[in-house]
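Milestone 3.1: sequence recovery, worked example.
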């Protein structure tokens, strides 16, 4: 059995690779070659990537594509997407073109408020703590003045701080619940720095508060941390057109399609098993743009899915209405994004993405990302309610199957020609490939 390694982080990159490949791989040379093949030939660029995280061995590539023809609030965009799943970029592009011919996407920022909390225990009554909090509240702002001054110059900063009593859920548990505007930065470091100062302030002020007993002065800070649940950092994206314009061919009746589409959305609104997959499709579009722009897709995912459960039951993020012959499809989604700080000024492809998008503000990026999510959802639902999801998806997946089985250029062309009008499945593709090889 392999023993745990000591001092791994102190090893050089080459030593780490040697230990990994000789310890875990039967063919250590082949394993090492795989890692080295993904190094960047530019040493300075590779060093930059190495220093993004710890214990770096190599780079892990995802395809970086673009979805053109997005019209958002009258402005044209080509949207960058980093994702490994077949058909996502194609679906987004197709939906963008469809809606671009019908007025495009309309997006609105509803709010940009972000949240952080100081969690602490207080051995006293809520009434006494409330009085203390009201006395010292200005001190929280004063003690963070140096931290917030640059953010305030950009129009952001601390919006408010409130005391929340949670003693009915955990004995002696209270929160400082703070709201922030971080402008074009995602703001995690700014928020956490403010929160940690709040914690120091409440501890210091409690020690000096004459109306507290010795036990009450011993406020115990549990933790100070931002929340990735940002229900008030919200953006809306929608598309609409007359129902009659929903059909692109005589094969689909526009009214029937509209009603079937609306029913599919309503199912996702009331059925969690469907809602999870429905929302995952939205996140295909959202995550791909979030990742391509160097933002934290894990934070976005966590916050979005919490928002989808805000009613107490997990439900669809998107909604539809058909009124007076007008089809309207929309979503509202919380997105805490940044266009400055973090990887945005470091990662070359992130900088490329930002320039491709016209160097957007954080609010503009929220709107672009929301539109990508809505486009993806529309494309998926249109396929599901008409041809079925597999027809388009498997055609896009076909090349992956061929590459997996090391098909030659000539073999690929024969397979592509054969499956133009034939149902695609992994087994059928493999069978046909073996047939032509014989």
């Amino acid at each position: 059995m392999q023993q745990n390694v000591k001092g791994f982080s102190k090893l050089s990159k080459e030593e780490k690779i040697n230990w990994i490949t000789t310890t875990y791989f039967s063919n250590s040379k082949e394993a090492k070659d795989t890692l080295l093949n993904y190094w960047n030939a530019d040493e300075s660029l590779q060093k930059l990537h190495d220093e993004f995280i710890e214990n770096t061995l190599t780079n892990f590539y995802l395809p970086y594509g673009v979805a053109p023809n997005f019209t958002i609030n009258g402005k044209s965009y080509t949207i960058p997407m980093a994702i490994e799943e077949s058909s996502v970029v194609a679906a987004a592009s197709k939906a963008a073109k469809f809606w671009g011919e019908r007025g495009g996407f309309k997006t609105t920022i509803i709010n940009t408020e972000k949240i952080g909390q100081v969690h602490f225990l207080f051995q006293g009554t809520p009434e006494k703590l409330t009085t203390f909090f009201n006395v010292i509240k200005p001190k929280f702002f004063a003690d963070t003045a140096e931290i917030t001054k640059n953010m305030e110059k950009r129009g952001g900063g601390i919006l408010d701080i409130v005391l929340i009593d949670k003693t009915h859920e955990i004995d002696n548990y209270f929160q400082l619940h703070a709201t922030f505007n971080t402008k074009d930065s995602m703001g995690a470091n700014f928020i956490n720095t403010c929160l940690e100062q709040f914690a120091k302030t409440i501890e210091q002020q409690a020690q000096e508060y004459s109306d507290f007993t010795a036990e009450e002065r011993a406020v115990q800070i549990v933790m100070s941390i931002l929340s990735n649940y940002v229900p008030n950092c919200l953006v809306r994206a929608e598309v609409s057109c007359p129902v009659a314009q929903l059909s692109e061919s005589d094969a689909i009746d526009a009214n029937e399609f509209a009603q079937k589409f609306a029913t599919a959305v309503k199912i996702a609104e009331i059925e969690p098993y469907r809602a999870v997959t429905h929302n995952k499709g939205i996140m295909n579009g959202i995550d791909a743009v979030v990742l391509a722009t160097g933002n934290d897709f894990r934070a976005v995912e966590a916050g979005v899915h919490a928002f989808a459960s805000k009613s107490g039951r997990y439900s669809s993020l998107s909604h539809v209405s058909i009124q007076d012959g007008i089809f309207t499809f929309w979503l509202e989604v919380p997105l805490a994004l940044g266009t400055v700080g973090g990887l945005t000024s470091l990662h070359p492809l992130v900088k490329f993405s930002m320039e491709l998008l016209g160097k957007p503000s954080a609010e503009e990026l929220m709107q672009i990302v929301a539109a990508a999510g809505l486009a993806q959802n529309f494309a998926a639902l249109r396929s599901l309610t008409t041809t079925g999801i597999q027809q388009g998806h498997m055609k896009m997946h076909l090349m992956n199957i061929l590459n997996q089985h090391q098909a030659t250029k000539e073999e690929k062309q024969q397979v592509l020609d054969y499956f133009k009008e034939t149902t695609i499945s992994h087994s059928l593709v493999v069978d046909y490939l073996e047939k032509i090889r014989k």
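The CA atoms of residues 236 and 332 lie 4 Å apart. The chain has 16 helices and ten strands.
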